[in-house]
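[recover] target loaded
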């Protein structure tokens, strides 16, 4: 089954939505990580939910660049990262340093002492000179410093704080599927905004926070984990919103669906090694006989023997023949 992303609106209402189902792409992610031992169940579910959420956010903003979702803190999972490209190619990984029990919430995975953070970075593809990626960071707790136990709660809080948009996000993942449903209030424009008065702004806020969004958000929140993981898109949307004026968008020909892909390359690894400097590389070669770097996202192994390493620090045109290896 091919991974899929569905977009829809509620006709005449200030509400839009998206549904993502990562199937073959998610299984490919887990297959790659299984080569290095795989992840505990709770970490697999967290990465699956982050992957579904990041694809939804990328589809929501239509950004020409990478969207990078990270959570980090002081738990046994020090860092979890998902990156999604504009064409919905995605990859994800986590750094696990301790024992992780099944079924534990986000606070026990990452936010043990309530110091964890969530960061969303937007890195444009055609960055101007001196331009830096945009990054927003929020804590893994709510307005009363209560720990948020699900990544969906963290991202809802993020959207409200950073974008002033009410959002309902339902996420679920297992070792076969990662899925997510996003419902969001649309910023209202029209006659009320044209006057530019405080009254117009108040009216816009009142419309945006209308009972329409609240009603649809409650319907979305009623979705059970098992339903999100087992029902196909048509059945799920009909079961939730059969009484609502839902209008779905048919993807145009040639539009790519979510898929696993990694942006690592030998050239990028070479650049990283060059930044380490000659002394550090020579030290590694003396100890190990070669420099071997593995990609945390896809498992690819890049090996540089002494000849390869020497080429890193030679001027172009003075390089000896390569004996480079990629495993």
């Amino acid at each position: 089954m091919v991974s899929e992303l569905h977009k829809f609106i509620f006709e005449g209402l200030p509400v839009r939505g998206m549904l993502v189902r990562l199937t073959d792409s998610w299984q490919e992610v887990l297959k790659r990580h299984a080569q290095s031992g795989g992840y505990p169940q709770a970490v697999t579910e967290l990465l699956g939910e982050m992957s579904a959420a990041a694809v939804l956010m990328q589809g929501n903003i239509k950004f020409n660049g990478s969207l990078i979702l990270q959570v980090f803190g002081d738990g046994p999972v020090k860092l979890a990262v998902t990156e999604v490209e504009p064409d919905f190619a995605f990859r994800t990984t986590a750094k696990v340093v301790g024992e992780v029990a099944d079924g534990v919430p986000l606070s026990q995975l990452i936010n043990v002492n309530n110091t964890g953070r969530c960061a969303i970075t937007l890195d444009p593809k055609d960055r101007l000179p001196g331009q830096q990626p945009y990054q927003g960071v929020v804590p893994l707790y709510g307005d009363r410093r209560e720990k948020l136990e699900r990544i969906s709660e963290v991202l809802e809080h993020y959207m409200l704080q950073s974008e002033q948009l009410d959002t309902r996000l339902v996420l679920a993942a297992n070792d076969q599927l990662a899925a997510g449903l996003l419902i969001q209030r649309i910023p209202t424009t029209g006659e009320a905004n044209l006057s530019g008065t405080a009254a117009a702004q108040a009216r816009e806020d009142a419309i945006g926070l209308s009972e329409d969004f609240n009603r649809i958000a409650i319907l979305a929140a009623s979705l059970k984990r098992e339903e999100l993981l087992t029902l196909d898109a048509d059945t799920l949307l009909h079961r939730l919103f059969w009484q609502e004026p839902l209008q779905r968008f048919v993807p145009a020909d040639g539009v790519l669906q979510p898929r696993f892909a990694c942006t690592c390359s030998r050239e990028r690894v070479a650049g990283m090694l060059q930044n380490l400097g000659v002394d550090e590389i020579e030290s590694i070669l003396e100890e190990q006989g070669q420099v071997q770097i593995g990609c945390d996202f896809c498992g690819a192994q890049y090996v540089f023997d002494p000849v390869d390493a020497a080429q890193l620090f030679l001027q172009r045109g003075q390089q000896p023949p390569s004996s480079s290896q990629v495993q």
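[recover] notes: Confidence is low (pLDDT under 50) at residues 190-204, 315-326.
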